[in-house]
Amino acid sequence: MNDLSKPETTWAYLAGMVDGEGCMSIFRHYKNRKVSKRGYEVEPRLMIANMNKETLTDIIALTGLGRVTTLVLKRKDQDPFENYEIRYNVGEQRIILPKILPYLMQKKDMAEIVLRLLNYRLDPKDRAFTENFYLELEEEYRCAMIKSKPWLLLAVQQRGKLCQRNLNLIKAYQTHTYIRNNEPSRYKGKSPCLTSSSESDVGKDKI
Hints:
Layout (H helix, E strand, L loop, with lengths): L7 H14 E9 L9 E11 L2 H11 L3 E7 L7 E8 L1 H11 L7 H15 L4 H21 L2 H8 L6 H12 L2 H5 L25
Antiparallel strand pairs: 1-2, 2-4, 3-4
Helix pairs in contact: 3-4, 4-5, 5-7
């Protein structure tokens, strides 16, 4: 059973784990249009990954929140190996994020955006307002995510070579048009184009 009266050091420790080993996101869960007229739902996600399962079980014992999931990862020229994640449901995220927010450093902006989504879902507005709200929130999340990865911006400044996915993230951050460019079907008007890039930016040595 979780205990909101746990000492602040517990939440500060959890914030450190989320900053270093965690991932929080606004995830687009596509569904049958009979279930959702939009064709998808926007869902908040929070997890902590580590190759040491004992570390994660200790975190769960400390907070009383989350569950461990085992993943089997496969990489080129390597044998499959196990990795582990703590996954938190929506109710647990509503408990955790306000508690760890004061202690977050790298992912604080992202946490604030995810928390806004969680709070909005408690009192949603009409469909038109919700659609615009989701679009704006996804846009803000993408920008917050790229700002949490300063090494990507540094790579661009130094003309480093990036894989196409990271190159798209950088250009989206610079133009603030990620959703419009990557999913133009969601917009009735003409979608603005991303800034063109040189082929030299995408090479064999990819990040």
